Amino acid sequence: MEQIREMADKLKLLSDYTRLTILSLLKDREFCVCELVEILEISQPAVSQHLRKLKSQGMVKESKRGQWVYYSLHVDDKSYIKAVLDYTPDSKTILSVLNKQHVTSVCK
Amino acid sequence: MEQIREMADKLKLLSDYTRLTILSLLKDREFCVCELVEILEISQPAVSQHLRKLKSQGMVKESKRGQWVYYSLHVDDKSYIKAVLDYTPDSKTILSVLNKQHVTSVCK
DNA sequence: ATATCATATAAACATTCGCTTATATATCAC
DNA sequence: GTGATATATAAGCGAATGTTTATATGATAT
After folding, report:
1. How far apart are CA A103 and CA A63, in angstroms?
2. How far apart are CA B74 and CA B53, in angstroms?
3. Boundaries of each HTH arsR-type domain copy (chains A, B) (predicted)?
4. Which of B97, B80, B105 minimizes the C-alpha distance to B29?
5. Which residues from B are below 8 Å from A when comparing CB atoms?
6. What confidence score (pLDDT) does residue B67 get?
7. Longest dimension (CA), chain A
8. Contact between chains at B20 and A14 (C-beta distance less than 8 A)
9. Sign of CA dihedral A82, A53, A49, A11
């Protein structure tokens, strides 16, 4: 059942708090790495590694602009991934709960 | 973000091939442990442990009848769990691909 | 009661995972 | 150029995961 195996692999990406939060944030707009670092309060390499996994499965796209790399959601509207993300809180709620409304891509 | 943490925990249950297959089979009807063992070709304790995890998160129900324990799906129709399971193959397809159409609860 | 079948639990183990620190690469400002 | 900022990669580590084997529990049949 290769189909189930593939789904399980993608769901594994969704089954981590940090990655599920990143994807939920990206529902609203693109974020650069340094913003995610400030919001999630984990190290920059940790964020980069999560983004790499998400990118390797085609769930996010990157766009380099200047010294920043912006990541955006890249999920088919009709996929089960999108179906799951429809249930996660939106970025405004997340930022408000985490008290990070002020974070912008001008990071340091 | 406790909501995201809870979702991630439940998605973790879906992100394993064996468990996702079990849940997909249960979309159609209840199965007993010994059937799942034959279908999945892993040890009986492995199946039991997966079922225990699924039960602990309320995703399956058990029903003891005689020496058999039957498990059935216990997922809210409107949840994201159900949304995911709508994308997995149905039991007939799974059994056919795995060549296990013959398996019944009279196991040995 | 004994033997058999179905299931659950415990222990052990290899693998995977997510994190950190350290380091490398690349861009920008001066 | 040099220094500061943004990001990626590598190595190391402890925790979690999924499996197996061994054992326990419980129901059924004889």
Report:
1. 19
2. 13
3. 1-92
4. B105
5. 1, 3-5, 7-9, 11-12, 14-17, 20-21, 24, 79-80, 83-84, 86-89, 94, 97-98
6. 93
7. 48
8. no
9. positive
Report chain B's mean pLDDT, rounded to a whole number: 95
Amino acid A8: pLDDT: 98
Instruction: Report CA-CA distances (Å) from A107 to A70, B25, B49.
Output: 13, 49, 46
Average pLDDT, chain A: 95
Note the pLDDT tens digit of each residue in B19-55: 999 999 999 999 999 999 999 999 999 999 999 999 9
Q: Cβ of residue B4 near strand C, that is under 7 Å?
A: no
Residues of B in contact with A11 (CB under 8 A): 11, 14-15, 20, 84
pLDDT at B107 over 80: no
Is A67 in contact with A53 (CB distance < 8 Å)?
A: no
Task: Considering only CA atoms, name the residue closest to the C1' of nucleotide C8.
Answer: B48
How far apart CA B19 and CA B50 sit, in angstroms, is 6
The token duo for A96 is: 């408000």
Q: CA triplet B78, A6, A49: central angle to 5 degrees?
A: 95
- Amino acid (1-letter code) at residue A68: W
Q: Which residue segments constitute the domains of chain B, with CATH numbers given?
A: 2-97 (1.10.10.10)
